[in-house]
């Protein structure tokens, strides 16, 4: 029986499995962090997400595309993060710093007991995380509405508050990257998350709040004139 490589099985995914990525993936496999890619899950702006096997279970593998990432957009975000003030405008350096930042953000959020995937490992442009779900990834909030939306909203705000107390703002929160797993919210996609002391932190926090409220307004549990400032102060614990 012929065993197909991941390049052959996912041959339509151009720009993903270059030599650099193959080598990084092999190293993660050699260290037992992941076994084999199983199926594509999502194609994002800069990355491809895969379901992968690890032992008898499943994990998530996120691979950033070095060749066709919008590194200028990345730099507009990461360049304001005090942790990356040293960065020069070089494509590869920016992309790899972006991946490192997402991994660090996940570790920090997990330490603060925010409901997020556990970061299992990173190598250059690849991040491995625990799977939120059973055999398949849990659905995004936009695809599976909660049975008790008002209660779910309070849980989301509680996670945002924990994240803020850990010194982070998600920066790109919406119904697309909040998972609904067994009627509990899990926050994912932390590449744009930044420190609360970043110059544009207040703007990003307000945007997160407005995006979340927009969804819950649609399901009828948020008034049109909901007080964003009041919610922001609650998240900041002021």
Fold and architecture overview:
By secondary structure, the protein is an alpha+beta fold. Helix content is 37%, strand content 19%. The chain is built from seven helices and nine strands. A five-stranded antiparallel beta sheet has the order 1-2-3-5-4, with helices on both faces. The protein has a two-stranded antiparallel sheet with strand order 6-9. A two-stranded antiparallel sheet has the order 7-8. Helix 3 packs across helix 4 and helix 6 (201-218) crosses helix 7. It is globular. It starts with 5 loop residues before the first helix and ends with a helix.
Task: Provide keyphrases for this structure.
238 residues; alpha+beta; Phosphorylase Kinase, domain 1; Transferase(Phosphotransferase), domain 1; 2 domains; 5-stranded antiparallel sheet; two-stranded antiparallel sheet; 7 helices; 19% strand
Low-confidence stretches: none
What does the main sheet amount to? 5 strands, antiparallel
| Backbone shape | globular
Mean pLDDT: 92
| Helicity, as a percent range | 25-40%
The CATH topology name of the largest domain reads: Phosphorylase Kinase, domain 1
Listing every helix as H and every strand as E from the N terminus to the C terminus, the arrangement reads HHEEEHHEEHEEEEHH
CATH class of the largest domain: Alpha Beta
Adjacency order of strands in the biggest sheet = 1-2-3-5-4
- What is the name of the CATH architecture of the largest domain? 2-Layer Sandwich
Helix/strand class = alpha+beta
